[in-house]
Amino acid sequence: MGFRILGTGSALPARSVTNDDLSEFLDTSDEWIFPRTGIRSRRICTSESLDDLACEASRGALEAAGVTPDQLDLIICSTTSGDHLIPAEACAIAERLGATCPAFDVSAACAGFVFALDVADGYFARGRAERVLVVAAEKMSRLVDWGDRATCVLFGDGAAAAVLSAGGQNPLAMRLETEPSVEILHVPGIGGSSPYDATEHPASSLSMEGRRVFKFGVNAICTSVTELAREAGVAVEDIDHFVFHQANERILSSAVARLGLDDEKVVRSLAETGNISSACVPLALDRLVRSGQLGPGQLVALVGFGAGLDTGACLLRWE
């Protein structure tokens, strides 16, 4: 038993922060940021909570699917930046929606949405669920060091969601991989105040080795697309749309060139949103759906990659 996506939704904070805005307190400029990243602006939470964004995206997906919260059998949320460590972000979503189904989070960084799809697929395969809400919600603005121009210019906040139902032929192919590496891209945990803890605890802000992330990202996209096509028994050129993690335009362009893809098939939201971690892939998918570009029978490849180093990729035939 497979699944099909009944509806998608997304939500962004109201405040758009441009590169020129950042230059007011950072030694940077649009001329420096855009050529290196492909980012013009990013959405940053001011009065919105992540709970707000996650629920807005969820309601949009439920409405598009024609499903009510009481009809859900499971809620899975991908996040590394929730409004609370305990309980899970998914529990807060369930409470606000008025759902009473099981709810839990997954943490696979920028690959989290695809990992969550695979978890949902397992519930369908075991006959444990008929309808599942999968949400990816990230407030990266609370994880970055706003004095570090190498990292803070890259990230933004947002959420996106999809309602899945049991049945259908998806996924045509699914790949989850981890190349274990903690230091390349990580955020230290909370130190706490235990009088017995003698270890040092650095600030909980994001650090990244940009060159190694770049190489990993390009390889992750290229390997994933090639293997998805092979597993599904289709040619890469037969895939109609490519939804990649929106980390950096240079990563996207390099992967597109290496694979020889038609650039028009590659969805991009990076310029206006920045990197929203696991919310990038479902947000770009929602835009593709709502623009009317993704039609029945078309093939769409999703590839998320990030800290861990995790990669999640799947090939879907849109129903």
Major sheet: arrangement of strands:
1-7-6-4-5
N-C termini distance: 15 Å
- Assembly category: single chain
- In terms of DSSP E residues, the strand content is 25-35%
Mean pLDDT: 95
Provide a brief overview of the structure:
With 319 residues, the chain is α/β, with parallel strands linked by helices.
Characterization of the model:
By secondary structure, the chain is α/β, with parallel strands linked by helices. The chain contains nine helices and 13 strands. It has helices spanning 19-22, 30-37, 50-65, 89-97, 112-125, 210-232, 249-259, 270-273, 280-290; strands at 3-11, 15-18, 41-44, 74-78, 103-106, 131-139, 157-166, 173-181, 185-186, 207-208, 241-244, 299-306, 308-317. α3 (50-65) crosses α4 (89-97). The protein is globular, with a radius of gyration of 19 Å. It starts with a strand and ends with a strand. The relative contact order is 0.20.
